[in-house]
Specification:
By secondary structure, this protein is of the alpha+beta class. It has four helices and twelve strands. The chain starts with a strand and ends with a strand.
């Protein structure tokens, strides 16, 4: 199911904000729906370089549409694309969507989900809402089936990666937004760390 949400800042710029805040973002490149040959060449050169460094690396394509300030959510997500099939898959996806190509390995996901840090004013402590799933293989943000809410000041026992997710979310200056993340069993992403922050999006 696909639905739309109002996002003042475009997805690619939101990911840059995460990176600027010191969070580990995915190894990725953006190709717009209204692309030209140069966009495709840059994207495929990027993928060729990754393939040359690691011929076993697979690719994924996350898609969305954007009209003015409206963006689509829950659109098709292509995974496990071999390098030889990337161009044709991308070319097909670009007939409808803006595309974010990433070079991450879904099977390595162990925890994944969303977190919101709530700022209710200077005289009140921060609190968080955390959703996640835990899997032996391929934990995906969309599969979250567990959740917890608490004040940051409360002492509660959470597993190691979840504590680090909360600490990472606190580094991002914008509060009351939904941050999407995955904890991988191997360090990855631009900063070669276990937790990758995919994007943030509007809450309510």
């Amino acid at each position: 199911m696909t639905w739309n949400t109002e996002e003042i800042i475009a997805k690619i710029d939101r990911i840059k904000e995460l990176s600027d805040a010191g969070l580990n973002t995915p190894k990725m490149i953006f190709v717009p729906y209204q692309h030209d040959k140069e966009h495709l060449k840059i994207a495929m050169d990027w993928a060729d370089k990754i393939h040359k460094e690691n011929p076993e690396q697979i690719f994924n394509i996350r898609t969305y549409k954007r009209t003015k300030f409206t963006e689509s959510n829950k659109t098709v997500h292509y995974t496990d694309i071999k390098h030889i099939d990337l161009f044709s898959t991308l070319d097909n996806a670009l007939m409808q969507f803006n595309c974010m190509i990433d070079a991450e390995t879904p099977d390595n996901g162990r925890f994944a989900g969303n977190i919101i840090i709530h700022d209710e004013g200077a005289d009140k402590p921060y609190r968080f809402d955390l959703e996640w799933c835990k899997k032996e293989i391929r934990a995906m943000v969309r599969d979250h089936d567990m959740s917890t809410s608490a004040l940051l000041s409360e002492k509660r026992i959470l597993t190691y990666p979840l504590e680090n997710v909360i600490a990472g979310a606190m580094k991002f200056p914008k509060k009351d937004v939904i941050l999407e993340w995955t904890y991988f069993c191997e360090s990855t992403g631009v900063m070669n760390e276990p937790i990758v922050w995919w994007e943030y999006r509007k809450y309510q």
